[in-house]
């Protein structure tokens, strides 16, 4: 498994090359940068140059997660505000424009993929939403292509971005170069089970998975907990891991609240990676 780390765990802090050094020391071979102006400020030329220089001197591969809001001041209680499928056309364009600002950093940082969210928690699936999804994905795909970036659409715990609906979007839009960022924690949430649980989702979308997001929860709340640490209600990792594709980045995406110091983060990531590799070895024995 191509294990990696999301900078989401540091969302309350300004991203710095020393953080990337620490992720590398933990054993990450992929780093997903979470685009947030308070964290990785994609509008700050100096900040982008600094991060770009680090990746140019490293063999670690970067990917980008879309911004979820456009605010430069952020608190741990902030809710997502950018909505690519909002009923209001102005809000959809506003979200697209903000994501394109983040995408422009691919001129300096060698991102190969961008992970997108379609819809917020309350959004429901219908023909109008489908049309918004198709238009948005086509627009951002056309913008990302010349930058060498391909789109990944993440399954969420709303009614828009279920695995089945994501497959419909890809099929109807003929989006052959667009794939899915399969988030195991989201698939594990109780409101979407049993139809969209992890194993049914894998049967449906496995050929289109371009990346994995690994984290855990109690099957009721999107907690973004460390994998393999839940005593009750969590994902059965020993059962699930052998079913996952091994040729795509597997990004551990952990909650930023409560905040952790970088040494603790490195220790926890290293332990998580070691346990995953042990399970892989046991499955292949």
From TrEMBL:
Protein name: Sugar phosphate isomerase/epimerase
Entry annotated with the keyword Transmembrane helix: no
Domain Xylose isomerase-like TIM barrel: 21-244
Annotated keywords: Isomerase
Organism field: Granulicella pectinivorans
Pfam family, one: AP_endonuc_2
One MF annotation (Gene Ontology) recorded for this entry: isomerase activity
UniProt keyword Isomerase present: yes
């Amino acid at each position: 498994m191509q294990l990696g780390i999301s900078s989401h765990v540091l969302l309350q802090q300004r991203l710095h090359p020393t953080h990337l050094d620490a992720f590398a020391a933990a054993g990450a071979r992929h780093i997903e940068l979470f685009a947030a102006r308070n964290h990785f400020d994609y509008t700050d030329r100096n900040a982008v140059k600094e991060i770009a220089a680090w990746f140019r001197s490293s063999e670690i591969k970067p990917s980008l997660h879309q911004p979820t809001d456009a605010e430069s001041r952020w608190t741990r209680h902030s809710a997502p505000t950018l909505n690519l499928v909002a009923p209001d056309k102005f809000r959809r364009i506003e979200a697209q424009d903000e994501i394109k600002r983040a995408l422009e950093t691919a001129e300096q940082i060698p991102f190969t993929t961008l992970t997108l969210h379609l819809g917020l928690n309350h959004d429901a699936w219908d023909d109008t939403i489908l049309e918004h999804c198709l238009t948005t994905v086509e627009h951002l795909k056309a913008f990302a292509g010349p930058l060498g970036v391909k789109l990944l659409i993440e399954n969420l715990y709303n009614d828009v971005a279920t695995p089945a609906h994501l497959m419909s979007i890809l099929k109807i839009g003929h989006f052959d170069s667009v794939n899915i960022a399969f988030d195991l924690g989201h698939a594990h949430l109780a409101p979407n089970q049993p139809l969209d649980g992890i194993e049914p989702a894998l049967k449906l979308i496995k050929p289109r998975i371009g990346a994995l997001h690994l984290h855990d929860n109690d099957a009721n709340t999107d907690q973004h907990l460390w994998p393999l640490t839940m005593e009750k209600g969590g994902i059965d990792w020993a059962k699930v891991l052998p079913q996952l594709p091994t040729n795509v980045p597997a990004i551990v995406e952990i909650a930023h609240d409560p905040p952790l110091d970088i040494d603790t983060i490195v220790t926890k990531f290293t332990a998580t990676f070691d346990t995953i590799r042990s399970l892989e070895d046991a499955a292949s024995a």
